[in-house]
Write a structure and sequence with these properties.
heterodimer; A: Rossmann fold; 6-stranded mixed sheet; 21 helices; about 35% helix; about 25% strand; B: MetI-like fold; about 0% strand
Chain lengths: ~525, ~290
């Protein structure tokens, strides 16, 4: 074996004293070989991002490197003065981040941001810089580079922004690219494209890539070798094929088991259950006017959607971001107005009702939101968040309290959660609170809008199990909105595939995912991470 | 790794032990502000009980006594009245006017800001145009015009100041509420069937309380300054009732002979305004979680 490009030896990073453990990463050692993609996988808080930041020298101020070496070209990066490291950053080691919107400067054009990196590293000649910028934009596969380089980041889609981040990272042809969950914020098809792009560029340039992720599906698609981290410790490392098919450590096995897979068979459900929700020819169009007298921009979000939902059954709604699936969820909840169609809740059209008329019906249809951090009022205790709705609908306070305690137990939270604030909980626990809130009314219909997308794969599995269990006990109907087809196939009885506001295909998950009829559905299915590995496992 | 993660392990937070308060306490200038304001308030409200002179007691033999003459710590005025006694009495009025004007304008500004920010659309636009209309009036001019029409009792002065300074709070609150309006937790509150009034004042208001407190602190400083200003011009609090502003007014013709007449109330105004401003800036930094990283 040749010499590694980067060699991490006994790296230990300490956390501030008030944290639950002393080290963010403890005695971590691994090598990054020339021209390989190394995946670091683990749950949130496993120390995978901290390890990457320590290698880059970008640790937050509260964390300190307590020991170890990071050897690059025979020199210990950790022992180097800051000025010398800065010169290496970007030129030899470079990084892309999870959220491309916050990592790009909103007030600079895309081209200027790439240009800046070149200028900062001593490219004096303006014309050479411009040529390089165009080269890079072409390389990352963005349409019309001469035009695009004058655009601001907000004009680009999430996937395009991530491509720009990659262009910036590649500007100086680094030896090592560190990618910190670069596809977690993207939908399935965009994720597949970005993974493909990283793989292609890595091969072409013979770069080494350190890729951080929590999804074994992604690992299966991209990795040559894998490192598994748990609570700051490196628990397993090996070739990707070996770790994926024959994991040794129990933690690795648990992570792999948690990856949702396409199911071969459909769930058996009684067909005779009564219809609780019926939607006919639903339309929703967004109109935004630019400026005071500007012309109106019309974006159709939901076009002619119709379906039927029976008690005790789950309807999956899948599609890319911008396909209108979340807009439909909000319209069904009457959180935004619709432009046409009918929504029959237990036979009664709720669409023409005013907010005041609909308020007494709200308890019958409830929602679980995507982001467990944003959907709970940060200034209210969990107890207050749970009871405020029922009390406003006329439930006696003591009764609401007792009910909240019972439901907290049902969603697997400690009774002490009642008096605590949302920030005291992890993402998974918060999502349990979100589900508990929706269940306070004993609803007949539950809409889950990307309810597990923001969670780690292993937490995802637990929440999905909880939802399935709640549904079985209460016999409620569920609409499950997601961009992750694997998740949809796990939990749904029927699936609607949405594209540009229209339903392009519908049917049972096994039929849709195993034998898709439409091109669009086929693209979605092909984009599922780890689909090649799926059949092997 | 985030604040949330660290805070998760903190014991149930009392307000004075929260991160915000810890940051505030670390800010020396802000703590100086607190000390200044506490000291001034204590002096103004308890000082008169310790002084041998009444603020209206006239001693014509002791006119224009410079500071530290006998028991006259700050000297006497053209009528031989003790300046220390007058300063404290005036301070009670100035601080009370400043504080009550702040309360009134903050409540008014908050209500209008929350309603405009949450309602948006036509109601929001209409309310914010009212705010713009008030803002486009030169407020000192408005203040003087109003003061010329009504009898300038301390209460009226307070109301007038409040009426001309609520707009800033309204604007800040409106912007903040508008940014929170489309958050998921507000959607969730609507999903639960809460009324708009409830969402505005029970769900949203607690989330903007930080910026309101900052704006309120800075408003006190402005109100004290405004009161001093209009009293100085003779339209505010009328003698013999002392206020820091009309003490300055009385001092201007003796500036060469007895400069302490102007210096003493001038310093009091400066200390009060600076104190409130320090506190306001300190609170603003403390409420901004990112200031930890600097």
């Amino acid at each position: 074996m040749t010499d590694p490009v980067l060699s991490v030896r006994g790296l230990t990073v300490t956390l501030p004293r008030e944290m639950d453990r002393r080290h963010a990463a403890e005695n971590v050692s691994f090598d990054l070989q020339r021209g390989e993609i190394l995946c670091i996988i683990g749950e949130s808080g496993s120390g995978k991002s901290v390890t990457a930041s320590a290698v880059m020298g970008l640790l937050p101020a509260v964390m300190k490197v307590a020991g170890g070496q990071v050897l690059y070209a025979g020199r210990d990066l950790l022992a180097m003065p800051e000025a010398a490291r800065r010169a290496l950053r970007g030129r030899s080691l470079s990084m892309i981040f999870q959220d491309p919107l916050s990592a790009l400067n909103p007030l600079m054009t895309v081209g200027a941001q790439i240009d800046e990196v070149l200028a900062a590293h001593g490219w004096r000649d303006r014309e050479k810089r411009t040529a390089k910028v165009l080269d890079l934009l072409t390389e990352i596969g963005l349409p019309d580079p001469p035009l695009l380089r004058h655009q601001y980041p907000f004009r680009l889609s999430g996937g395009q922004r991530q491509r720009v981040m990659i262009a910036i990272a590649l500007a100086l042809d680094p030896d090592v690219l560190i990618a910190d969950e670069p596809t977690t914020a993207l939908d399935v098809t965009t994720q597949a494209q970005i993974l493909e792009l990283i793989r292609t560029i890595q091969r072409r340039k013979g770069m080494s890539v350190m890729f951080i992720t929590h999804d074994f599906g992604v690992v299966a698609d991209i990795a040559d070798r894998v490192i598994v981290m748990e609570k700051g410790l490196l628990v397993e490392q090996g070739a990707a094929a070996q770790v994926l098919t024959a994991p040794e450590h129990p933690y690795t096995r648990r992570l792999i088991a948690a990856v949702p897979r396409l199911r071969e068979t459909d769930r058996v459900a009684e067909l005779e259950a009564p219809v609780i929700l019926r939607v006919e020819a639903l339309h929703k169009t967004y109109r935004s006017r630019s400026g005071f007298l500007g012309h109106t921009r019309v974006v159709p979000a939901v076009r002619d959607v119709g379906f039927e939902l029976r008690r005790g059954r789950t309807l999956g709604v899948v599609g890319e971001s911008g396909s209108g699936k979340s807009s439909m969820g909000k319209v069904l909840m009457k959180l935004t107005d619709a432009d046409g169609g009918r929504i029959l809740l237990d036979g009664r059209d709720i669409l023409p009702l005013t907010e005041a008329e609909f308020r007494p019906l709200r308890p019958r249809i409830q929602m679980v939101f995507q982001d467990p951090y944003a959907s709970l009022n940060p200034r209210q205790t969990v107890g207050a968040s749970l009871t405020v709705g029922p009390v406003a609908q006329g439930m006696v306070r003591s009764e609401a309290r007792a009910r909240a305690a019972a439901i907290l137990a049902q969603v697997g939270l400690d009774p002490s959660a009642y008096d605590r604030f949302p920030h005291e909980f992890s993402g998974g626990q918060r999502q349990r609170v979100g589900i508990a809130r929706a269940l306070m009314f004993d609803p007949e219909v539950l809409i889950a809008d990307e309810a597990v997308s923001a969670l780690d794969v292993s937490i995802q599995a637990q929440i999905l199990e909880l939802l399935a269990q709640v549904q079985a006990v209460r016999h409620l109907a569920m609409i499950f909105i997601t961009h992750d087809l694997r998740v949809a196939s796990q939990i749904c009885d029927e699936v609607l595939v949405m594209h540009k506001g229209r339903v392009v295909e519908s049917g049972t998950p096994a039929r849709i995912f195993r034998a898709p009829e439409q091109d669009y559905t086929r693209r979605l299915v092909a984009a599922i991470p780890g689909s090649r590995w799926d059949s092997a496992a | 790794m985030t604040h949330a993660a660290t805070e998760a392990l903190a014991p149930p937070a009392r307000w004075w032990r929260t991160r915000t308060m810890r940051r505030f306490r670390r800010n020396r200038l802000a703590m100086l502000g607190v000390v200044l304001i506490v000291a001034l308030t204590l002096a103004c409200f308890s000082g008169p009980y310790f002084l041998p002179f009444d603020e209206l007691y006239i001693d014509l033999r002791a006119r224009f006594a410079p500071p530290m003459t006998g028991a006259h710590v700050f000297g006497t005025d053209p009528l031989g009245r003790d300046i220390a006694a007058r300063l404290f009495q005036a301070g009670q009025i100035s601080l009370l006017v400043g504080f009550s004007a702040m309360l009134m304008s903050t409540v008014l500004g908050t209500v209008i800001g929350v309603v405009a920010g949450y309602s948006g659309g036509r109601i929001g636009a209409a309310l914010m145009r009212v705010v713009d209309a008030f803002l486009s009036f030169p407020s000192i001019f408005l203040l003087l015009a109003l003061a010329a029409f009504v009898s300038p009792s301390p209460l009226m002065i307070t109301v007038i100041i409040a009426v001309t300074s609520w707009m800033e709070v309204a604007r800040i609150v409106e912007a903040e509420v508008r940014s929170l309006r489309d958050r998921d937790f507000v959607m969730a509150a609507r999903m639960l069937g809460l009324s708009s009034v409830r969402i505005m004042f029970r769900e949203l208001l607690p989330n903007v309380i930080g910026v309101i407190i900052v704006a309120a602190t800075l408003t006190v400083a402005r109100a004290i300054l405004l009161e001093a200003y209009i009293s100085f011009l003779g339209y505010g609090i009328q003698p013999p009732l002392p206020s820091w502003g009309n003490m300055l007014n009385g001092a201007q013709q003796y500036l060469d002979k007895a400069p302490w007449l102007a210096i003493v109330p001038g310093v009091a105004i400066t200390l009060a305004v600076a104190g409130f401003n320090f506190i306001g800036d300190g609170l603003r930094d403390a409420l901004d979680a990112r200031s930890d990283l600097r």
